[in-house]
Structures are given as C-alpha cells and as structure tokens.
Amino acid sequence: xxxxxxxxxxxxxxxxxxxxxxxxxxxxxxxxxxxxxxxxxxxxxxxxxxxxxxxxxxxxxxxxxxxxxxxxxxxxxxxxxxxxxxxxxxxxxxxxxxxxxxxxxxxxxxxxxxxxxxxxxxxxxxxxxxxxxxxxxxxxxxxxxxxxxxxxxxxxxxxxxxxxxxxxxxxxxxxxxxxxxxxxxxxxxxxxxxxxxxxxxxxxxxxxxxxxxxxxxxxxxxxxxxxxxxxxxxxxxxxxxxxxxxxxxxxxxxxxxxxxxxxxxxxxxxxxxxxxxxxxxxxxxxxxxxxxxxxxxxxxxxxxxxxxxxxxxxxxxxxxxxxxxxxxxxxxxxxxxxxxxxxxxxxxxxxxxxxxxxxxxxxxxxxxxxxxxxxxxxxxxxxxxxxxxxxxxxxxxxxxxxxxxxxxxxxxxxxxxxxxxxxxxxxxxxxxxxxxxxxxxxxxxxxxxxxxx
Length: 453
Ligand SMILES: Cc1cc2nc3c(=O)[nH]c(=O)nc-3n(C[C@H](O)[C@H](O)[C@H](O)COP(=O)(O)OP(=O)(O)OC[C@H]3O[C@@H](n4cnc5c(N)ncnc54)[C@H](O)[C@@H]3O)c2cc1C
What we know:
The protein is of the alpha/beta class. 47% of the residues lie in helices and 8% in strands. The chain is globular, with a radius of gyration of 23 Å. The protein binds flavin-adenine dinucleotide.
C-alpha cells in the first residue's frame, strides 16, 4: 500500500503514450521489500500495460565515500538482480554520469519514478536530472516511516515536539506490503548492457581510497533481512537493558543497511512489533530519533555547514561564552584520526570505526563530546567530526550522523549544569563510562580486533 502523502508529481508533463516502458531510477531505496517507489512503478506499469525498467547508477565519485562504502553498496546488487528478475522486471546497472544515463533512458519511457533523497548533494542531483527529463516524473518518499512534512510542518525543537505526532500516525504509515505482480513482462530491447561489477574496483572505481580493516557485515537486502530476523529472534529482548553498554554490543547493527536503503525502517518496525518483545528503546531510536534527524536535515539546509544556524540560541550562547576557556588538550586531525590521544576509551572508539566502519552509539556520543573539548573552537570540532564520521562510518553521510554530531553541541538537547568549554551544553567524561559500563572490556575487545587486522 502506498499512502498518497508519499508521492509527489515533480513536473507538469503528462504520461507519454509513445513510451515503451516505465523507468524507475533506483537510488536511495536499494531494496525490493517495502519499497514504495518500486511499488508505484509496478502499479503504473500495470495501469498502462507496460514493462518496467529499473536502473541503478553508481556514481564514480561521491563526497566522503571511499571503497568501504562502495563495496557495501555493490554487495547489494546481486540481490536486486535476482529479485527483480524473478518479478519479470528489467534491471540495468551502470557506473558513470547519472544525468546522461537517466536522461538517455527517459527518452524511451512513458513516465519516470524517483525515490526520495534528503541530503544536499542527492537532492540537487535529483533536481538537476528531474529538470532535464521531458516526461512525467514522480518522486516517492519511501525511506521514512512517516513522510517528513506530514509528520511535522517545521523544524522540530527536540524529540518531544514530534514524538506524539509520529506515534499517532504510525498505524497508518508503518504498514508493510507485498509488491504487486508486474503484468507485462516483455523483454525491453536495446537497453545498455550492465557493467561488470566484479572488476569495477580495478577499472572505473580504481581511484577510490581503500581503508584496510575488518569486515564485520556484508551489504545487501538479503543480509539485512537475515540480520534483522536473527536479531529480533535472539537479541532484541536485551536491547532496553544493554543497548547503552559499549562492551555488550547489544544493538542491531542495522544502520548501514538502513542508510543505503537496503532495509526499510518499516520492515524493522513491523518485525519488532510483531515479536511482541518489549523493545520501546529500539523503537524510540529507529522511529522517533531517526525521523527527528530527517526532520532536521530536511528543514535546516545548514545541517553540515554552519553551527550557528543549526543550534538553539541557548547552546550558541553557552559555547560562545566559553570560547576563551583553556582546552586541556588540543589534538590535530591527524592525531585524532589515528586514535593517538591520551584517552584510551576515545582511542578505542576511533579505532573501532577505522577498523570496522562501525562505532557503538554510546561511544559516538563520547567521541563527539571529546572532540569539542580538545579543539580550539566549536567550529573546528564540527568540521573534524563531520570529516571523520563521513569517512569511516559505513552508515556515514546520513541525516542520523548530521543530527548526532549536532546533538553533541546541544541540538535537540537541554541545558545541564555549567562546565568549562561546554557551558551548559551536556558534558561527558571518562569517569561516567567507568561508572556505568565495563568500559575496559570494550577497550580490550577493540584491541583484539586491532591485533587481528
Ligand atoms: C556523534 C554521532 C554520530 C552519529 N553518526 C551516525 C551516522 O553517521 N549514521 C547513523 O545511521 N547514525 C549515526 N548516529 C546515530 C546512532 O549512534 C547510530 O545510528 C547507531 O549507533 C547505529 O547502531 P545500530 O544500528 O546498532 O543502532 P540500534 O541501536 O540498533 O538502532 C536501530 C536503528 O535506529 C536508528 N538509530 C539508532 N540510534 C539513533 C540515533 N541516536 N539517532 C537517529 N537514529 C538512530 C538507526 O537507523 C539504527 O540502525 C550518530 C550518533 C552520534 C552521537
């Protein structure tokens, strides 16, 4: 089922009767299950008795992305190939210039469907491509449970502002569906032959930086679902008690799958609810916190550009008042990147990301707070955090990352008691980690990983 609130008609062209197929440019929803853009494409193809062509284009360069991200994304292509093939849907994959390829394919289409994007570069790209396509274009918001503008009409001050609105709308929007069956399975002739992905890192993507490390998870929809089902069956009941513990590793590790659209948040939501297990904490993160992050990035175009324009007044004032405070340590980007500070907990967190592409959520908060404490200015800390987060986290370059980093500076939070450097912005220290968790076990775990690498 596709709720009408998810669909926008992009331009004033109407259906082209001479077109040979419906074209779906799959970009941010790299999956079959609970993909409303794919579903709309099938329904429209059925309505006009046309075959459906799904096109996936790998951009040669994407800001902040390196081989780690590309590999994870491309591991999902086989699942798509197989799944779409079974449904009688044509699929073509290319590496290169999106604008040219999609615009070329659109010439023979009756209409075109896009999935939604929220970060600046992708939004801009979709706008540019959309403007060059002389066919009817639909965009479909499929990567959130509740469409952003339906959930809340402006930037939310904090989670409390949108929680009730989201919860109220969950029964209507958090509904999974089986994809419709495509009726016209005719082979589409003369579409460009897909690129050979097996050798692509030696050919078209050979320029990408390779980060050596340990591969903890493999990309793709099948892996995502396997992990989700196994997590819900075997580990979910421990989430509320242990998800904050860095040493326990009790969270789902689904963020990279969700980031690449290989897994829909609706699928996770439904699976968790269906289990009947008490997992209010996970729903709070997956639904409320994640959609708060989407709200932030959608309504605040400065989300990764300008601290002053993203923080509430009280946080700006506090950080500014304490600008002159002496920093106990000041580290260069290089020292931070290599995890060589005096703080073994922070170093362990940084090394976890560098090695595996993942950092435990509690450590992400500590990690961000400490960079603020150890940088000359809040603005410098902001830049460093964005750079490291987007480079190393497999789930980086995501609204969650931008909101998570902004949170370290006071966004979506409230004032606490006064401290040096932070003023009333929430502070975290190593004593807190020691008191609440077996943090030495976490350090030990990362050391073992390091020894293995
Ligand atoms: C400084 C900082 C940077 C962060 N960078 C990123 C990032 O680049 N990408 C990213 O996806 N998340 C980021 N987060 C949010 C959060 O830490 C991760 O989503 C979470 O740790 C991922 O692990 P998991 O999949 O095991 O999460 P689980 O705890 O199992 O949660 C399930 C899902 O809920 C969502 N979620 C969990 N925590 C949050 C949160 N605090 N805010 C919004 N959504 C959440 C994620 O999609 C996650 O996969 C950041 C947080 C901070 C404080």
